[in-house]
Structures are given as C-alpha cells and as structure tokens.
Amino acid sequence: xxxxxxxxxxxxxFLAAKIMRIGHVPRHVAFIMDGNRRYANxxxxxxxxxxxxxxxxxxxxxxxxxxxxxxxMTVYAFSIExxxxxxxxxxxxxxxxxQKFERLLExxxxxxxxxxxxRIIGNLSLIPEDICKLIxxxxxxxxxxxxxxLNIAFAYTSRDEITCAIKDIxxxxxxxxxxxxxxxxxxxxxxxYTYNSPDPDLLIRTSGEVRLSDFLMWQISDSCVYxxxxxxxxxxxxxxxxxxxxxxxxxxxxxxxxxxxxxxSITHNYRAFTYVNKLHHERQVMIKNMYLSAVQS
Length: 297
Known about the structure:
Largest sheet: 6 strands, parallel
Helix content: 40-55%
Distance between the termini: 27 Å
Shape: globular
Order of helices and strands: HEHHEHHEHEHHEEHH
Radius of gyration: 20 Å
Structural class: alpha/beta
Number of helices: 10
Number of strands: 6
Strand content: 5-15%
C-alpha cells in the first residue's frame, strides 16, 4: 500500500476539512497509534494483520494532514518496550517495518515532489542492520525537503531519548567542550532526537487508553492532548476532525501558556551552541556512513 496518497476525502469530507481550516490548525500533530492488537482480536485475525492495517492507516492520516495544512506529523511506530513481546510478534513487526520502509523508498519521487522530509527518531543501535540501512537511505534522500515533515518514532521511548541526551551532555563536560553551568532546558532540548522539530501542538492517542506510554514526555508539556476510544486501524477523518476541533477549543489557553513561555529570556551561549552543532554533525555523519554502506553493498 502506498504511503503517499492522492486526496482520499469525498467532497463532503473535504468541505468539512476546509471549514475547519478557517480556525486555528495545529502545525505539528503527534499520534500514539494504539489498538492494532485489539483490532486483530476484534476481527479474529493474526496480530500482524492488525499491525499491517495500522501501518496502512498512516498513509490516510498523512493525506488528511496535508488537506488540513498541517506541516508536521510525529507517529509512535515502535516502542523499545515492544521488544519485550514474544519473539514471533517482534520478528513479524520488524519484517513489516522493513517492507514499509522499502515501500517508502520506492516512492522517493513522490516524497521529493511533495517536499516531504522523513526522519526516523529512536535508538538505532537496537534496530537490525538491514532496517538501519533503509532508514539511512530514507533520511539522506529526503533531508533537504522542507514542505512537510514526517517523524517516525521507531525503537523509541522518551526515557531512552532523555538518557541519551544526558550522556551526550556528560561527554561534552568530560571533554571540556561545555561546562556544568551551560546545562539548562535549552541544551537538553537541543540534544534530543527531535531537536529539528517544534514541540507538538496536539497529541492524539487512540484505543481508549488514557496514558502517554513514554512518548515525547519532554516535548508535550504544553501540548493539547486528545484521547479517543476508537482503535487506530478504525480511525476516520471524522475522528481526526473531532481532535482538531478539540484543539481549537483549547487554543486560547494554549496561546496564553505560549506567551508565558516566550516571555522568558534566553541567554545565547556560544559554547553550548558550538557543542550542539558538533553533536548534530556527528549524528548526520553516522547516518551518512550507514547510507554509504547501504548503497555500496
């Protein structure tokens, strides 16, 4: 199934989306795509079929974001905690991910045409090498696109992300590139996997679970959070528009919080700035080396 779809809405749905755009539309929406296994149980099919249906729903959602003018989307595709599931299911998920990343690469012309930058955020050291190479190809090919951004959290938890950021900061202090006085919220934010992205305006979780499951815990402190009972594979445009409407109702309060945050003075620290740039460069080199290894093999 294609990742990049033409418009999927009928005329009435498209009209509803167009009306919704009159109000304030979030620029960055994050999704906890929960309910794939429950959907499989509900339909009496194998769990992998539920996950396949869930992956396919991503394409529809990406299309809806485009129709609504939402320029960034972050999805929780695979948690580090998922590695604790039985080997058969984990292997099936890795194979499914490989197939979907291969399909994404096959659609690189569409990605380039629409200016979509794809970023995979997570602990790549936990991912099989063949999938890492696919990830490196996708990220390298689309890195200069800037019309829309798709962030896929894969082998990710927020605790792991923050731990890695702290390790990078400790390494900087140890090597005398930064000093303890440089450590603040801005430095930590700039060392996270999501340093390129604004914090999500809206987080949507499906399946009726009212928890965050260690997803973007640092980034969503001021985000609007919307929970819905619908299972992710059954998520519809009407469910999505309901979440956008909820965000619009919360918008004035979110703006008030943003004004308070923006009023805080931030002192520019050249030493920390230099270290963060070096850190980002090292990450880019790592991805580039994986890409070169992939194209040469």
